[in-house]
Amino acid sequence: MSDQNINIPEVSVDCVIFGFHATDLKVLLLKVDDSEYWSLPRGAVSRKESLGMAASRVLKETTGIGNVFLQQFQTFGAVDRYKHYSKEQTKAVLESSKKEATESLSYQSTISIGYYALVDFEKIAPPFKEYQWCAISEIPNLLFDHNDFVDMALVSLRKDLRYLPIAKLLPEKFTLRDMQNLYETILDREFDRRNFHKLLMRYEFLIKLPEKRKGGANKPPNLYKIDVEKYETALQDGISY
Questions:
Q1: Is residue 167 in some structural domain?
Q2: Cβ of 167: how many Cβ atoms within 10 Å?
Q3: Could you give the CA distance from residue 57 to residue 45 in angstroms, rounded to a whole number?
Q4: Which of 42, 69, 73, 168 is deepest in the core (most CB within 10 A)?
Q5: pLDDT digits (tens, 9 = 90+) for 32-57
């Protein structure tokens, strides 16, 4: 039988997990045991689960939390998916790993479904010893073509921003400046403070709290939280910025 007629069943989901901290948009990276290699959270899709179920499972295994916003953004299936490290290097690294969760990181998978997740940075405590939150501009060479995943996830995030619940990247209580920093960081542009705050307030999904953020040198800013129902309604029509 010709190689061209052999079915290739290996399919994985690979997740770009976005978090926001200290005015930086960051991505969660995992380190394969006893190596210097980093990758995105990744796992094989079983025959008994949908792609969405597989992505949720991988996210749960790597972050310890569920019910997280997940968005599929692209399918990756190049013949040679080893951008920075050869297939032989990747195989050796993954096969030498003793970590149960990385056993599903099959070096053979030729099709990967890319998902990105929006999470509250402060709530994530991955059950792995070796992990890091890495700023977009500082991401090292990753296994497979995972650097391409990050690039394309960011493109998709920017393109669909008006309809995405990016407030999930913020802590439960935040300032208007925090939200402005989030938009500015994702879009890589600056907004006029007064106009941006006025725009946000017109949607009526921000609840002003009776408390202020303490610890700054200037006047303590007001804290806000999201009215989830009104926020979801606003997202249906798209939030202008």
A1: no
A2: 22
A3: 10
A4: 42
A5: 766 778 889 888 888 888 999 999 99
Within 10 angstroms of residue 232's Cβ, the number of other Cβ atoms is 12
Rounded CA-CA distance 194/92 in Å is 55
Distance CA 61, CA 59 (A): 5
User: What average pLDDT does range 204-210 have in this prediction?
Assistant: 94
Q: Is residue 209 domain-shared with residue 129, that is, in the same domain?
A: no
- 191 and 151 in one domain? no
Side chain identity at residue 53, one-letter code: M
Phi-psi region of 103 (alpha: psi -120 to 50; beta: other; left: phi over 0): alpha
Instruction: Let me know: does 93 contact 35? Beta carbons within 8 Å.
Output: yes
| pLDDT tier at 101, thresholds 50, 70, 90 | very low
For residue 111, give Cα distances in angstroms to 43, 72, 74, 80.
12, 14, 11, 11
Least confidently predicted of 38-42, 149-153, 182-186, 202-206: 38-42
* Residue 168 within a domain: no
pTM for this entry: 0.84
The helix or strand, by DSSP H or E, that contains position 181, with its residue range, turns out to be: helix 176-187
DSSP letters for 100-165: GGGTT--TT--EEEEEEEE--GGG---S-SSEEEEEGGG----STTHHHHHHHHHHHHHHTGGGS-
Is 4 a member of any domain? Answer: no
pLDDT at 8: 45
What are the structure tokens assigned to 26, written together? 């960051």
168 contacts 157 by C-beta, under 8 angstroms: no
The total number of structural domains that make up the chain: 2
Going by pLDDT thresholds of 50, 70 and 90, the confidence category of residue 102 is very low
